[in-house]
Amino acid sequence: MNLTERVEEALETIRPYLITDGGNVSVEEITADYVVKLKLLGNCGTCPMSFMTMKSGIEQAIMRAVPEITAVVAVDLAEQE
Length: 81
Description:
- This protein has helices at residues 3-20, 43-46, 50-65; strands spanning 23-30, 35-42, 71-74.
- With 81 residues, it is α+β, with helices and mostly antiparallel strands.
- The chain has a single domain, classed as 2-Layer Sandwich (GMP Synthetase, Chain A, domain 3), CATH 3.30.300.130.
- It has a three-stranded mixed β-sheet with strand order 1-2-3.
- A hairpin with a 4-residue loop joins strand 1 and strand 2 (35-42).
- Helix 1 (3-20) packs antiparallel against helix 3.
């Protein structure tokens, strides 16, 4: 299983909770230095608690399942418009 698949598998453990709140997350990139860049979708992109969700939920789930990952960051939606 490659790195992206392992990260996706970790996300699947928390994705149902995000979907329940009208949000979701997608992997945009995993850099050469093992930083996962995520795009917050739906309500996750506009929720004032999304930073806490990233740090306490998403980041922990990924780093626990894939110890090679050094950081998890959200890609700013405004940068992509």
